[in-house]
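Lecture notes, unit on protein representations.

Consider one protein chain, 136 amino acids long.
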Amino acid sequence: MSSRSCKKAVLEASGRFGDCPAFAVLEVTPEFLRHVRRRSLLVETHGLAFALEYHALDWERNDIFEMRGEMMWVRSGSFFFRGHPKHSRREVETWCVLIAELEQFLDSNSQVTFFGRNTAMLAEQYNQSVERKDAA
């Protein structure tokens, strides 16, 4: 597998109220990176605070939360995602990722990377989730 093929970035997620997914998984491809860079350039060029667009993610425990309204918020040099569980308006937000860090990951030999406060704990949660899916 080429180092620039589809990879996974696991983004820490948090919400202010109640139970929510602990993370979301983003498929990272060269095409996605180019798209995010173009959106970031648009924000910079036009002096915008951010650019918004719909983007579905693979959220942890989505069978329970059924996340809706998923939007990618692109700022100058970074992006994050927001969504909410079905039948709720409680927002869940992912960790903000620097585009430069995502580019470094895409150029690396790693197939999965983690973005968040405690990446070791995030990796453990992600691996447990994968094991649960594999066992089902």
